[in-house]
Amino acid sequence: MCLSPSFGFPFIGNTPQKSQRDLHFQVAIMVIRWGVCSAGKISHDFTVALKTLPPDHHQVVAVAARNLKRAEDFAQKHSIPRAYGSYEELAKDPEIDVVYVGTIHPQHLPVGVLFMNAKKNVLCEKPLAMNLREVQELVAAAKANDVFLMEAMWTRFFPISLEISRLLAADAVGEVKMARADFGIPLLDTARSVEKELGGGALLDIGVYCLQFVLMVYDGEKPECVQASGVCLDTGVDESMVITLKFSRGRLAVCTCSESVELPNNAIINGTKGTISVPAHMWCPTSLIVNGKETQYPVPEPYLPLNFINSTGMRYEAEEVRQCLLQGLKESSRMSHADSALLAEIMDEARRQVGVVYTQDHQ
Questions:
Q1: pLDDT one-digit tens code per residue, 319-362
Q2: Cβ-Cβ contacts under 8 Å for 174 (sequence gap 6 or more)
Q3: Beta bridge partners of 231
Q4: What is the pTM of this model?
Q5: Cα three-residue angle 191-348-259, rounded to 5 degrees
């Protein structure tokens, strides 16, 4: 068994002289060995999603939680070889190529830096961090340690999102003049969604999906103007928010998010020659309507019950990570460090206008 010079991926064959076909075969079977950080609901769904991919491409080899019993229960449920009662132990595991960080938002910076300082590649749940400054710190840590870092914006990697980008590049609906995205679900009885110290608030939790959608539509362009209006809870976080963005050439976008009411949860792109619609649920889409014609893109069935809808769709971001690592890349062109920074910058400005301030904003 040989090892890749960059990663600990096992592959078949150890003869120095290899044909291009042999080399292609070796790369194709390289296994990405995952560590899972946190044993919560989203980590469960991510692990289930990985099981929909070939086992010779993706394997979960360890899980860590702040409580060893939780990690052990998680490991038993998912047949994971090793369980740790601390994130530090996971960081020290030499047989991990990339860590999936599924902790709550305020932990993304310290935990992400912990793993990257241990020379681990990182896929970190959205939002990548609490604000732009923290995003920049994470990116700096990735560069200093020469490791891969990507925000786990799973929507970007769904087949429908890829098809939307292809259609827009092909001028399928002409020049886009308006984009709109809504995401609203009742979450007020969930502590993580309403408590400031837990990173609560509609924008960071679900509004981020709407913003990333319009930024994808406008190909990562920075808007000329951001205007936000919102309603805050007594805890100081936003219950609902509406954000209007103006881009160059008079192009507009509107994002609406709420954790108190159910919204249409769809997205629409209006161009001079037609319309692209993403029916609910726009953050994990399985249906696309282009100029009135609908096409279905179902996600695989899970082997265990899921906590969130269409969560096996996280397989697409996982495979993006694999492809980037096999190519020796340190970031994804589909969800780049610059994309994450722009997203955070816009959310910072929207929060400033609405009056949502986290402890991390003062550090």
A1: 999 999 999 999 999 999 999 999 999 999 999 999 999 999 99
A2: 271, 272, 273, 274
A3: 240
A4: 0.93
A5: 30
